[in-house]
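To whoever picks this up:

The parser on our side crashed when reading a file containing two proteins. I've narrowed it down to the boundary between the first structure block and the second sequence. Both blocks are reproduced below exactly, byte for byte. First block:
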Amino acid sequence: MAAGTHAHSHAREDRPPPPPPSSATTYTLTGAQEGRQARQPTNQHNPSQPPLAAPCLSPEALAVPRTLNATGDAPGPRCGHTLTTVAPAGPVVGAKLVLFGGATALEGGANANGAGGSSPGTPTTSGPASTGAGIRLAGATNDVHVFDVGTGTWRLLRPEGEPPSARAAHAAASVGTMVVVHGGIGPAGLSGDDLHVLDVSNWDHPRWHRVVVPGQGPGARYAHCASLVAQRFLLVLGG
């Protein structure tokens, strides 16, 4: 019995000890889109398990500030506009940036320089600007410009359909090959609670659609934000 016990103990001593538990991760490339590669951490002891964290961009994809020498029909100086990224679809190569609306001028009296009264930059909805409080956004537009990231070229779009009224300080979000616009403020005051959708699935024939959404909306507002969540919900916040 003693010999058997000794042999068993000797066999256990020769067996290599199991690796200690570890939370170490390894990064594997999960795909690339438009020159960007996403790295996703996985458990090196059990790769079949779900990722330990959300995907993150590889170091090669980090943004580097640089000045683009853009050409074409540029939108010109403005404020209160939106610039929305639209991913490529079909034969289109590279992402595009869709610029909509904004104010091309500022009006105001003494407070335009920040002297007394309400804080500068507060848009008003009354008549022509005077020496009253705040700065009034003027020259509101509803034009659409598109910037081709690949070629560095601006182009003025002339969409068909029912466009939104001229406005600034609105919100916009990309939904596939569409840009959804909500709210804002224009010459007549706050824009309505309706949604306008710019369909750019065909860049040669873009089209505006006015969408009537059932239920209680967020209400008329400006200086808010809108984001697409889970590829299903349009989240409107603030304003």
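<<boundary where parser fails>>
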Amino acid sequence: MKEYFAVLTSRAAEIICETFVVDPQRKIISCLGEFSVSKDDGLRALRGRMAFLFYPRRYSVLIGAGSKEAMTMYGEVPMLRDNPKVALEDGELDNCVSKAVWQAFEEGKARAIRQLSVGDIDLLLRDVRITSVLVDGKPWVSGEGKGGRKVIVSFLLTFILRPFERDCVNALPRRAAMHFAAETMSAAAHFLSREAGEGNFLFAAPFEDRTDLVLAMNKHIAHYDSFAWGWGYCVRVLAQSYKLSSSVAQGILARLGAMNASPRVLRRLARDVEGELQTLLRGLDHAADRARVRSILLYAPRLCGFQKFSKMVACIDKNTLFAGLDIVERDVTRAPRSLEITRPGEKKISFFGLALYAEYQSIPAHPLMNRFARRRMRWLLAG
């Protein structure tokens, strides 16, 4: 039976909706296309578009929030048992999960308040899930009757702004269900850490007005920082240099990123914006020094054209990965569940769309552990 998905990704000025169909039997993802809605147009514009998606079928919605709208944290909580020879039963596991959820909640709440710059009343604990439980390095199995000294509970926790959550829910028709919501960059970083086998790294992605950074350190992943550099800076340089409107300059920058021009033109354009690229690289270098990591994963498809025509970009530290979408799919990641990605015509799924879907699919089905986690979450919300 085919499954229908819509992935909503929030950007600074717009919300992008990607649609695709998954055929589990044939193991194929068919990309149907995308549309965007300006945030200035309000909730009504998004609701109108969502109402006609896949009509009259039911479909699932995955939400990718911005770093100013949600905080997602992946991590683990280690615990030592007093009696390692005694079998770890459901009752003790419930206690371990409760301790892990409480610790994650306290850390995540403080982090969310700092990151989102809001008070408690504006925060909503959107999701908490147990992704794995290891006992002395081996997965715990219910009823196995084995003991162990060290228990490690891995978790996923998401806080989201109440107004953003409310707007997303109100934009959906009744036949649509929100199954997963996370901060996009953190989910993408976790996706890369699983698929690429990366250890400690800084994941960066430039947007229109800023570059967001996510730190993966010692199996903990969360938003790290952001700095004031975005593609809008390059657009302004091109617009001022050639007396162009912003829309025309954006088109030229897109051509440069796609290498859709003659080599002579591409070299000239690369030189025009090289100063801005140096600002980006200095920001990344400074952030990596502060985070004490050597590896930087940079998701910037528009830089693909610069690699060939800019000596400055080509000579970047070899630990930096310029991950344009084609590079990400070919060299870094694999389609989740061994699914083949098909692209009818020019339609394609973005890296962020693929990452959110992969994270949704990769969350283990641990009914018992997640029942414990949800119960603990209800206690936290009630308190």
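After patching the parser it read the second block fine. The first strand starts at residue 3 and ends at 10. DSSP finds 13 helices and 15 strands in the chain.
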